[in-house]
Input
Amino acid sequence: MWDVPAHLVPIEGARRGVLRITRDASVAETLHSGMAREAAIGFTADVIHLPAIAQAELPPNLVPGLVRIAWDGGSPDGRIPELLRVGACLDLVPSDGALDALVECSEGGVMCRLVDLAAWTTAPEALASSLEHYLTSPRLEAPIEPWHSIARGIASRRPRDLSGTYDETLRRNYWLGEDGSVSLSERHAAGGLVFGRLEDGPEGWQQSPAWRALEARRRQPFLRRSTCAFCPHYLWCGAYAADDAGSPDPAWCGVWIPLFERLQEAADIAWAEAGEGEPEEYPG
Ligand code: SF4
Output
């Protein structure tokens, strides 16, 4: 599975693409092929040859934090210097060792990102622990997503929902599968929401039922006046787990609302301690 860097696909407004290097690809060769300019690169921990990559001269345009490594949850085992050298961001799925890896890496200066939020939602205690670690660890050295984006949104009063944090914003992000199919993200592709094929181009994709369904999905909470439309956490959640009718999934909300409240509470305390007074109202 791989995505094509934006300069290879004439998508108006596209700024970067994501390239996932496969088990068979030469990582070093691909990194230096010029395709890695402003590209996010994903490796899986079992296939990368991290020491070799870390020792090689890196492409000058490689963006720190966008070398995404799908981590299996095991201990980084002394790899932190190499992860720092390549500007890695670890993508962590919930697993037995995920929290330990999260703590070790984020305190060692390596960015971490919780991926597959639906899966994390089924592990609510681990999810809450990751937030507490982000909020309270005195040794935290690197951001943890999605908490960091939400906290920055609260602090800057510039809301960014989970779709924005996870590169799932319609018209801005595209996912190109190995078979040439185009979708919004890997998650959407797996759910059957495919816009068409690469050769159809943006105009063709925007005519597809999947594109229209996703556009409608954004509007539904407000058209139908569902719970999401009145939810105080919509700015951060964006009805991430709402169905096609715009109705939220109670299991999702039951886990995430307390976490959004905890983040807001922490932000309010930080505001007060900084002597900033009450935060202003957010833009609608
Ligand atoms: S937390 Fe629940 S109700 Fe609030 S925006 Fe998200 S899905 Fe909708």
